[in-house]
Specification:
single chain; alpha/beta; 6-stranded parallel beta sheet; 10 helices; 34% helix
């Protein structure tokens, strides 16, 4: 069987998370594009890959004609890089967030439609075995009809660098993971949001690094989110701590531990009798970037559409920019992907 081929665009730090799964899946890496060709060459040498390097994406893709492009550039460059690749006849898998604005994201979706090429975003939290099991519990109605999701994310993160100067570092750079995870776990989509961002006393950030959000979702579900990158002590996990409520019971998923589930077992009494349910079996073999890469490869081989294809992922991005707009306008915002 002929190996699938790719060109990587962007040889920065995140590429270290992509070279190993690409090699493990035996993808032919035909080349690496980066504004710093020396950095691209260094990454090829580091991972013992014989590939050409370039700083000109369009010309390089015409020459190499890969099956797909892996976009590992900074968010500001995603729109240009992805649209160039799609118009060059390549499918694309790219890092989150999808784009630097909703206008850019819509432009990317249109480019995918116009070229007939698929663009997917790698939302790495979807490819975690525990999250897949959680999705099965919720969408399988193990706690009855879903009514609400709540996610808390609190850490004291001293990054230094660009995040310290961003206007909305938490929502823009991190919360996309939690927002997309809420959609994945629940199977419902965002309708509207009311959000409040703020910068707490003692913060080492210039922008609003804490937030509280209330999302109205389809099927009448409510998703509430509280988060901060400026909260010292008793941190949550990077996945956040979750309480998921249905009309028959509740799931707690905290500190990356196996979810705990209780459902009603009685029909009378002030507090109904409860029983514990076993969590769903965790069967995912390949997690993180390798999991998302395998969905891209499955698409190339079978035509099966990846779960984070751009028409879907733009809904998660709308939650990010909708929350920021709501906070700045001080009112509820209807979300229109």
């Amino acid at each position: 069987m002929t190996k699938e081929s790719c060109v990587i665009v962007g040889a920065g730090g995140i590429s270290n998370a992509w070279f190993p799964p690409l090699k493990a899946e035996k993808v032919e890496i035909r080349g690496v594009v980066d504004l710093d060709v020396g950095r691209a060459r260094d990454q090829c040498e580091k991972y013992e890959i014989e590939a050409e390097v370039s700083d000109d994406e369009a010309a390089f893709l015409r020459k190499m004609q890969p099956d797909f492009v892996v976009d590992l550039t900074v968010p500001e460059a995603h729109c240009k890089v992805v649209c160039t690749a799609l118009r060059a006849g390549c499918h694309v898998i790219g890092e989150k967030p999808m784009a630097n604005s909703m206008a850019e994201a819509r432009r990317m979706v249109r480019a995918s439609e116009q070229t007939g090429k698929m663009y997917m975003v790698s939302q790495s939290r979807r490819w975690i075995a525990r999250h897949e099991a959680l999705n099965k519990m919720v969408t399988g109605r193990k706690v009855g009809e879903l009514t609400a999701l709540n996610c808390d994310f609190f850490m004291g993160c001293h990054f230094g660098g660009f995040r310290d100067e961003m206007d909305s570092p938490l929502i823009l750079d991190m919360s996309i993971h939690h927002f997309d995870l809420a959609r994945y776990v629940s199977g419902v989509d965002p309708v509207a949001v009311y959000a409040h961002e703020f910068n707490p006393r003692g913060s080492w950030y210039a922008g609003d690094v804490s937030a509280s959000c209330i999302f109205e979702m389809t099927d009448g579900v409510v998703f509430t989110y509280r988060g901060s990158w400026c909260a010292e002590g008793l941190p949550t996990s990077w996945q956040g701590n979750w309480r998921i409520t249905g009309d028959r019971g509740t799931i707690l998923y905290e500190q990356d531990q196996r979810p705990v589930t209780q459902v009603t077992a009685g029909k009378t009494g002030f507090n109904r009798k409860l029983k514990d349910l076993r969590p769903a079996k965790e069967g995912m073999k390949h997690e993180g970037m390798r999991g998302s890469l395998r969905e891209m490869l499955a698409f190339l081989r079978t035509g099966k559409m990846p779960q984070t294809e751009c028409h879907d992922n733009i809904k998660s991005l709308a939650m990010v920019f909708g929350a920021m707009e709501s906070s700045r306008k001080g009112r509820r915002v209807v979300l229109r992907p």
